[in-house]
Specification:
The chain contains 13 helices and ten strands. It has two domains: 256 residues, TIM Barrel (Alpha-Beta Barrel); 67 residues, Type Iii Antifreeze Protein Isoform Hplc 12, CATH 3.90.1210. Strand 7, helix 9 and strand 8 form a beta-alpha-beta unit. 35% of the residues lie in helices and 15% in strands. The radius of gyration is 30 Å and the shape is elongated. It has 338 residues and is an alpha/beta fold.
C-alpha cells in the first residue's frame, strides 16, 4: 500500500476562500493524496483570554488575541462544501480537521475516509469520545504528548467503539518550526511497537528531509504544511513548504517508497545484470606462457571484462598445465588447460 501523503493547508488561506481553492490545486498538482484544512467554530474552541503561542505572535503580523486571529481564519461550512467540490474537480481527496462537535458533525456529513485528530485534542476525552462515536477510522497526531497520554487517547477511542486497527498514530512535534534536535523520529517506531498500531509522521520542520526519512523508517502516512507563499502573514506560513518544495517532497517520498519496496533479499536485480560482465573481471595471463607450463598465481591477472573464468576460481587453475603457447594478457578458458 502506498504511503498516504496529506498536504496540510490548515489555515494558510488566511480566511480567503480564493486562496483556499488555489491551495487545492497546488496540492493536486504536487501529487498529494489529500489536501487538509481546519474546520472550527472559534467560540467553541478558544476563550478570549487565551494567549497566542510564540510562533503565532511572530507570524501574525498584527497585534491581536488568539481568538481574534483564529476568528479571521474561520471559513463557513458552505465554503468547505465549495472546497470539497474543488477537490473533486482536481482529483484529490478533501480532508479537514474538525475541532468541535458541530464541525465533527459537518465533516462527517461529507463522508470522509477518516477523521484527523489534532495534537491539541489528545488529552480531550470529550472530543475523543464524540469522534469515536462516528465509527470512522481516525488518524491521531501526537505533538506535545508522552507515550502514556497517547496510550490513554487510543484506549478512549477504543472505548468509544473503534477497533485498534482503525487507528493510525502520527508522531509529531508541535513547535513551528520544529528544531531538528527535537524531532526524535525513532519515537514513531516506539509508538508502533508499544501500541500495535500503524504509524506515520506529521512534520513541522523546515525542509523536506525528515518526512522522507520517516518513510524510510516505515511511516504509512506523511502530513506536511504547505502554503502559496512563505512570506504571507499568518501563524503557519513560515514553517510551511512552498508549491515547488511540496512537489519535490512528494517526488522524493515516492522514490524512497519504491526503493524500500523490494524483497529484502540481497540478490542481483534485473536492471544490473547487464553490467555484470562489464564491471567484473576474468582471469588473464599476466605474461606469455609456454606450452606445458604449470600455472602459478604470478602467471595470472584479473582484468575486465568478466565473461571468462572468475578470479574466484583461481585456486582451481594453479598447478594446471597449459595446452599450447599463450600470449600475455590472454583471456583464459578451460579449453586452454590440460
Amino acid at each position: 500500500m502506498s504511503v498516504i501523503i496529506i498536504a496540510e493547508a490548515g489555515v494558510n488561506h488566511n480566511g480567503d476562500i480564493d486562496k483556499a481553492l488555489k491551495l487545492v490545486k497546488v496540492a493536486a498538482d504536487a501529487g498529494a493524496d489529500f489536501v487538509k484544512f481546519q474546520t472550527f467554530k472559534t467560540e467553541l474552541n478558544i476563550s478570549k483570554a487565551a494567549e497566542k503561542a510564540n510562533y503565532q505572535k511572530k507570524g501574525a503580523g498584527i497585534d491581536e488575541s488568539q481568538f481574534e486571529m483564529v476568528k479571521r481564519m474561520e471559513l463557513t461550512y458552505n465554503q468547505f462544501i465549495r472546497i470539497s467540490k474543488e477537490c473533486l474537480k482536481h482529483n484529490i481527496s478533501f480532508l479537514s480537521t474538525a475541532f468541535d462537535n458541530p464541525s465533527i458533525d459537518f465533516i462527517d456529513s461529507l463522508n470522509p475516509e477518516f477523521f484527523k485528530i489534532p495534537s491539541g485534542e489528545v488529552t480531550n476525552k470529550l472530543y475523543l469520545r464524540y469522534i469515536a462515536g462516528k465509527k470512522r477510522p481516525v488518524v491521531l497526531s501526537t505533538g506535545m504528548s508522552n507515550l502514556q497520554e497517547v496510550k490513554e487517547a487510543v484506549a478512549e477511542l477504543e472505548k468509544g467503539g473503534l477497533l485498534r486497527k482503525q487507528v493510525t498514530v502520527l508522531h509529531c512535534n508541535t513547535e513551528y518550526p520544529t528544531p531538528m534536535k527535537d524531532v526524535n523520529l525513532k519515537a514513531m517506531l516506539q509508538i508502533g511497537d508499544e501500541l500495535g498500531v500503524e504509524v506515520g509522521y506529521s512534520d513541522h520542520t523546515l525542509g523536506i528531509e525528515v518526512p522522507i526519512a520517516a518513510v524510510a523508517l516505515g511511516a504509512c502516512i506523511i502530513e506536511k504544511h504547505f502554503t502559496l507563499d512563505r512570506n504571507l502573514k499568518g501563524p503557519d506560513h513560515s514553517a510551511s513548504l512552498e508549491p515547488s518544495e511540496l512537489k519535490s517532497m512528494i517526488r522524493a517520498i515516492r522514490n524512497v517508497e519504491m526503493a524500500i519496496s523490494g524483497s529484502g533479499m540481497k540478490e542481483t536485480t534485473k536492471s544490473e545484470k547487464i553490467n555484470i560482465d562489464i564491471a567484473r573481471k576474468s582471469l588473464f595471463t599476466s605474461k606469455p606462457i609456454r606450452r606445458d607450463t604449470r600455472l602459478t598465481q604470478g602467471d595470472l591477472i584479473a582484468l575486465r571484462p568478466g565473461d571468462g573464468i572468475s578470479p574466484m576460481r583461481i585456486d582451481e587453475l594453479i598447478g594446471k598445465k597449459v595446452k599450447s603457447d599463450l600470449p600475455g594478457y590472454h583471456k583464459l578458458s578451460m579449453q586452454d588447460l590440460l
